[in-house]
Amino acid sequence: MKYEVDLTQMCPATFAFHVIGGKWNLPILALLSEEGPIRYNELKRRLNGITGTTLTNCLKDLIDYGIIHREQYHEVPPRVEYSLTPSGQELVPLIEEIVAWGANNIHALGGQKV
Amino acid sequence: MKYEVDLTQMCPATFAFHVIGGKWNLPILALLSEEGPIRYNELKRRLNGITGTTLTNCLKDLIDYGIIHREQYHEVPPRVEYSLTPSGQELVPLIEEIVAWGANNIHALGGQKV
DNA sequence: ATACCTGGTATATAAAATATACTAATGGAG
DNA sequence: CTCCATTAGTATATTTTATATACCAGGTAT
């Protein structure tokens, strides 16, 4: 999501919603929190259905937000690892609570398709 | 977000990410948690920038997810109030933690535009 | 030589969000 | 009575976002 606004100027709630909102941000953060430093292609394989373009864009956004870190190793084939920054690590318990909420509430609905 | 899948069949984490992912779902839920039952047009006014079409779609999705409830009163002009279901109310503390995280981490980044 | 790996990018298409105009039923101002 | 405003949306067209597909360099394995 691109907004062309100065993040530090906006309301903290809006900032937080930008970081964890969006279709792929939360799945990416959940994987990073479980799998520690993880490479671009493995991230793509584990995030069922994401395309390379979208993954690249999301990772760039999260780096701009200060949530994840990109470490590039000069090897062949290339190796680039993504991991959580301290700010990102503070999100981990929240992500776990969100997943727990999902487990407790998924059975509350009927079998309709959405 | 439309997925054409049976929600009860999917992974709890994926379910949770569908509920709170998306551009507007979390802002909508935050408003509902703060303002109790709230009408369509006031919701639209308070969610700065959302359009009627998008708000309607988001509300329908959240109803399908079992997170919010729609109560229609047969008055003129029409009155329709939206509120959290018990499943939705269980999300309230998580939303508060997310906002608190935003307040603690927004100053970690420089003033770049994103 | 050929195929395959990596972390991407470029281009074109499909999907989602937006802007705009519009609706029915009523109440109030003039 | 007429005109305008209110409500909760819907219909249509346009713009923005996400996806599918092909492709790149620089190496390794067969």
TrEMBL record, chains A, B:
The keyword Glycoprotein does not apply. It comes from the Bacteria. GO terms for molecular function: DNA binding. Residues 11-110 form the HTH hxlR-type domain. Coiled coil: none annotated. InterPro entries: HTH_HxlR, WH-like_DNA-bd_sf, WH_DNA-bd_sf. The keyword Protein biosynthesis does not apply. Keywords: DNA-binding, Transcription, Transcription regulation. PROSITE patterns: HTH_HXLR (PS51118). This is DNA-binding HxlR family transcriptional regulator. It comes from Paenibacillus silagei. The lineage of its organism: Bacteria, Bacillati, Bacillota, Bacilli, Bacillales.
